Amino acid sequence: MSEFRALLVEKTADSFERSVVERTTADLPDGDVLIDVRFSSLNYKDGMSATGSPGVTRNYPHTPGIDAAGVVIESTDGKFTPGDEVIAIGFDLGMNTAGGFGQRIRVPAGWLVARPDGLTLEESMIIGTAGFTAALCIHKLEHVGMTPAAGPVLVTGATGGVGSVAVMLLSKLGYAVTAVTGKESQHGFLRDIGAAEILSREQAREGSDRPLLKEIWGGAVDTVGGEILWNAVKGLQYGQSLAACGLVDSPQISATVLPFILRHVNLLGIDSVQLPLTQKAEIWQKLAGPWKPDGLATLKETFTLETISNGIDRILAGEMVGRGVLEH
Length: 328
Ligand SMILES: NC(=O)c1ccc[n+]([C@@H]2O[C@H](COP(=O)([O-])OP(=O)(O)OC[C@H]3O[C@@H](n4cnc5c(N)ncnc54)[C@H](OP(=O)(O)O)[C@@H]3O)[C@@H](O)[C@H]2O)c1
Description:
Blueprint: E1 3-11, E2 16-24, E3 33-42, H1 44-50, E4 67-75, E5 85-89, E6 104-107, E7 112-114, H2 121-143, E8 153-155, H3 161-172, E9 177-181, H4 187-192, E10 195-200, H5 201-205, E11 219-222, H6 226-234, E12 241-244, H7 258-263, E13 266-269, H8 277-288, E14 300-303, H9 308-316, E15 323-327
Parallel strand pairs: 8-9, 8-11, 9-10, 11-12, 12-13, 14-15
Antiparallel strand pairs: 1-2, 3-4, 3-6, 3-15, 4-5, 5-7
């Protein structure tokens, strides 16, 4: 029963309070593998967990952190031995299972992939759930036929975690990327990571009263939902697809069947959380090899347990740029 430090979110009468506390491994749930967490990362969902969003976390006190990368301390499962470097993203980690914002986690072996050659633990957390999800979107879009020849690819919420990795990766793979952002001050950042064109959120909402828009997009990665998502679907070229993974603007869409029955387009769903482990491992292998984004470190902002609370406030306010990494 060893001691470690963790961010703890506690429910009070009228709010959710965060503090850094001492915990022991006896506080962790049962599981196959105890891990010394070296790095975690900051995702929008961690913000939801830290502020009592019931769709993410039901029981408090709770330690958020849907991502963790570290070294196995103990394992009752033959697949892992002490000293192995592993990555955990998704499943219940950081939702109702104490997550990577603590220096130790104990999880089922079925949530873990071995760190792939080609990525350090820190790089795996610069990518994290957000970057993994960007890759999953592109993987699924290519599976249904997206190619650079089809035309520009729209990325919404482009300076955020999913968005910035999507811009970087699409550009590396030869796509012309149009980035949608609400941050005028970050146009230089977006161009540096590979955006060819930039639209404001207002421009991305233009024509929302029309049933169809000019056919422009050869594909789209949407992280925001709502009107911007639907406008992007209406602006897809014939037969092309949009991957929907987020809801920071709205979970609602007001839609018609017209783009589907007149333009033959596809609206693809993306879930990185319950994605079977074999498919997770396949995407990690791509990200460690041919899809490893160049200049990953330029996306990184490092937090400690003492500063991560500030990162949580900023991601909820839509103010983060790139990827927040928590170094333990
Ligand atoms: N389906 C999955 O498996 C999965 C996995 C990971 C994440 N997600 C979801 O994907 C979304 C993005 O996650 P993230 O970690 O990348 O969050 P993030 O870092 O906060 O990025 C979201 C970005 O969206 C833009 N934005 C914020 N508020 C907006 C609004 N009201 N209207 C339009 N744009 C807005 C901002 O970028 P700009 O300022 O550049 O516009 C912001 O940086 C979240 O909804 C998250 O839950 C889903």
